[in-house]
Design goal:
Length: 293
């Protein structure tokens, strides 16, 4: 059965930002096993980490794919507007410099640093500088299913939703293709925060046996994933029987309480959403971007 949405009622708004500076958080950091490291982290233009790559194995932590973008770091309130309006799957266009006119895709936003991750082809990345500007056609906030008021949708381009392959069953439940199903106890940094529409929260991957048991070692940038017993309707909390669906937006981290970042896309306090494992459940595969270009 097909799912009807209110896509024709959604507002499309232009928001513009620039490249977020690459950051060093501390001269040295300490991982959950007591290891000392000094690695690259958030920000900048990242050439060799892309949608479709594993979130593990990098000599870096909280790594963001492609272009890390922000409005500015002068006003947190203004910067959050840039994050809020920009949804996974939205079109972004370079509006300055040698790459002016080139088109890319929004992956998602990273809470705490207030960064928006933008995917562009390699040929575009090679032309970009850290002074360039990007215009996003912000489209998706307010999206909902007409016949399922108990399902909340955030941060999702309505046309990407159509391409995703959701299926409404005869019993009224909605099957959602995901690459990985995350147990409720494996979520960390970001729990309790209200920033469902501007941030993310982290999947904990420090326990090797749990990672292997649930297939979390398969996590890649751009993956659609399900989190069991998590309710993201009005913030992030545990609620038995609830389910949250999201997209992976940053890499793993050795820091205690941190791990691959997941931005919320939809959530329900009941078992209405049914995750179905699929090796094709990745925004890069659906849109032909990142490693799938």
């Amino acid at each position: 059965m097909s799912l009807t949405t209110n896509k024709n009622q959604l507002v499309m708004t232009a928001v513009q930002g620039g490249v977020a500076a690459a950051q060093q958080w501390a001269p040295f950091e300490v991982g959950s096993n007591g290891e000392i490291f000094s690695w690259p982290s958030t920000g900048g233009i990242t050439y060799n980490v892309k949608i479709g790559d594993s979130v593990f194995g990098w000599a870096g932590e909280h790594i963001e794919t492609g272009v890390s973008s922000t409005l500015d770091h002068k006003s947190a309130k203004r910067a959050l507007g840039y994050q809020f309006m920009s949804c996974c799957g939205n079109q972004v266009r370079v509006v300055s410099g040698e790459a002016k006119g080139e088109i890319g895709t929004v992956l998602g936003h990273h809470g705490g640093v207030d960064h928006l991750m933008l995917d562009f082809p390699d040929s575009t990345l090679e032309k970009l500088t850290c002074d360039d500007k990007f215009l996003v056609k912000g489209h998706g906030q307010g999206l909902k299913f007409i016949d399922h008021d108990d399902v909340y949708i955030y941060n999702l381009d309505p046309f990407l939703l159509q391409q995703w392959g959701l299926n409404e069953r005869e019993d009224g439940k909605i099957e959602v293709p995901v690459h990985v199903i995350v147990p409720e106890y494996a979520m960390g940094s970001g729990i309790g925060a209200l920033s469902v529409t501007t941030g993310d929260y982290d999947i904990l991957c420090h326990d090797e046996s749990m990672v292997k048991e649930h297939g979390l070692d398969k996590l890649c940038f751009g993956d659609f994933v399900a989190v069991l017993d998590h309710d993201n309707r009005y913030g992030r909390t545990y609620r038995k029987g609830a389910i949250t669906i999201g997209v992976v937006i940053h890499s793993d981290s050795p820091l205690a309480g941190h791990g691959p970042g997941m931005m919320t896309l939809m959530t329900c306090a009941t078992d209405k959403l049914v995750p179905v494992l699929s090796k094709h459940a990745n925004v890069g595969k659906i849109r032909g971007i990142g490693r799938f270009a």
